[in-house]
Design a protein that fits this description.
With 249 residues, the chain is an alpha/beta fold. Helix content is 39%, strand content 16%. It has nine helices and nine strands. Helix 3 links the parallel strand 6 and strand 7. Helix 1 crosses helix 9, helix 2 packs across helix 3 and helix 3 crosses helix 7. The longest helix is centred in the last third of the chain and has 16 residues.
């Protein structure tokens, strides 16, 4: 449990070396999703997985739960845990959006980026315009999954989502650092990635994101979906590649 500026975050560190790799989960949080990738990457360098405030054993943090607030808390916790900067950030889904905001705010902290099926402002704009009722009730777990007992951290992040999207919009340009974007093309089975048409839109939005990042590489995975991408071998390989490029190996 590491102090993040008045509250503590649950954090697990494994491996030795630099740059360290910090894994940031999607909107629903969860360190467990990273364990396969983390176990492999920990053979090469130091790794960090964590639960954001209000998830797992992490204590709740102050509102609003915007991308900038999450960034400040993560930065504080990493420093208090003795993690050496700069690091490689690996962000999945909304964690990809949060990673972009972090990189914009503190570019000297970040040696490389791996964005794993990242959420984009374009996708959230589409959700708001095409499903306004769900968007207005976005912090109600029933709007997403009936009977889901959402962590308090998720509720706060969803309430602050419009602010986080605007902070993401203000994050350009990013520094010229090794960056890989991995894109899944199979429907995930739930909103908003349910159909082949949804996935074509998703790929288009992510390609637009890649075009905004200097020298970014996009890897498209036709057979992976938004969840299964975390277990893909190519994800682990690309993280190791970014480590090597960031360290000049």
């Amino acid at each position: 449990m590491v102090d993040a500026g008045g509250h503590r975050l649950e954090m697990i560190l494994m491996g030795e070396g630099s740059p360290a790799v910090v894994f940031d989960a999607g909107m629903s949080g969860g360190m467990a999703g990273w364990t396969t990738a983390r176990d492999c990457v920990a053979l090469h360098t130091r790794t960090v997985i964590f639960e954001r405030a209000g998830f797992g054993e992490s204590e709740e943090g102050p509102s609003p739960r915007t991308a900038e607030q999450l960034t400040m808390e993560l930065r504080t916790a990493l420093r208090n845990a003795g993690v050496e900067f700069p690091v490689v950030l690996v962000g999945h889904s909304a964690g990809g959006m949060f990673s972009v905001v972090y990189t914009s705010l503190y570019p000297s902290d970040i040696a490389g980026l791996v964005l794993v099926d990242p959420a984009t402002d374009s996708m959230y704009d589409h959700m708001r315009e095409n499903d306004p009722a769900r968007w207005e009730n976005r912090s109600d777990p029933a709007a997403w999954a009936e009977g889901w007992n959402a962590p308090p951290g998720w509720v706060g992040q969803m309430e602050a989502l419009p602010q986080s999207v605007e902070q993401f919009r203000d994050s350009w340009p990013l520094p010229d650092i090794p960056t890989v974007v991995l894109t899944a093309l199979s429907p995930a089975g739930g909103y908003p990635l349910e159909s082949a048409q949804d996935m074509l839109r998703w790929e288009r939005f992510q390609s637009g994101l890649v075009a905004r990042i200097p020298g970014a590489e996009q890897v498209v995975l036709p057979d992976a979906n938004h969840g299964s991408i975390l277990g893909e071998t190519v994800l682990r390989e690309k993280i190791v590649e970014v480590i090597a490029r960031a360290s000049g190996r």
